[in-house]
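Example 3.2
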Amino acid sequence: MLFGKKKSVAGLDIGSSSVKMVELDGKSNQLSLVALGYQNLPDETIIDGQIMELNVVSDCIRNVCGNFGVTADQVVTGVSGHSVIIKNIVLPPMSQDELEESIDWHAEEHIPYDLADVSLDFQVTQSTSDATHVLIAACKRERIDNVRQAVQLAGKEPFVIDVDTFALQNCYEMNYQPDDSQVVTLLNIGASTMNVNIVKGTRSLFTRDITVGGSQFTDVLQRNLGLSYQQAEAVKRGVSSAVEGIEEKSIEPLMHNVTEIIAMEIQKTFDFYRATSDDNETVVQKILISGGGSKLQGLAHDLSARLELPVEVLDPFRNIKVDSRKFDPDYMSEIMPEMAVAVGLAMRGV
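Structure, written as tokens:
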């Protein structure tokens, strides 16, 4: 378009418990925050990544846009969970044309679904004289159609449908600008799913989606202490005064049990990567956590102690200009961990 205003694109993260939106402006190395919005979803609106109530989700998207000034006509959104398959594969040396012609045949070996039922994409991550390293990503078409419907019902145009894991990686790369020797694990803890991505520099080495999340803490507190959902959520976030007669010593063991499960799943991911890879030299140096589950009091400290690694909360606005006159710094600090995927998705649109 030679004249006229460029269409703006927002990042839309449809999680199992909330909808998050971010609109950015500028170039990739000089981004500024235009709009940011968040709204919780009713229970069981989304189950195992599948949108069960399309109208509820589309209304929520419209509300976020209207209440928080998100004016973009187009959105980049993402998918995650068991319908998404991500594999790093090693092939013989070949040209891009040869790879494009043969990728379906190679992918069939690694994707447990009929290729007619999935959308498939790939990217060469490394080429040497001996091998071509390729990252393939596939998602069931029905899951993509499900997300697309919700976006279109909200009056928005789906510009790109990405994978949440890679959106988080985009957010990390732009904000932290890692060199090739840095190895980190990006851990996005949602309400019901945890995305794990081991990244070396800007190359994804291994990804895994785990059906463990922040709601597991809530369930344990409800079940063992006889709390309502709202009470358990408050206690989970460290507001123990929200419930009378509940002692701190009765809460801690329950929280630690779930933290132990999360730590075990992360360790299993590390072990599985080492067992299935020829790479014996790569050692994770740090874990960066994000998502609503990362806000749990003491979680970073507990994971660090159990895994014997530094654990920090990822800052998705570290290299993004945020006008403190427009966006309340206290609110930004509170909501920051939950916006990482939405920021990564929004980056696809600028």
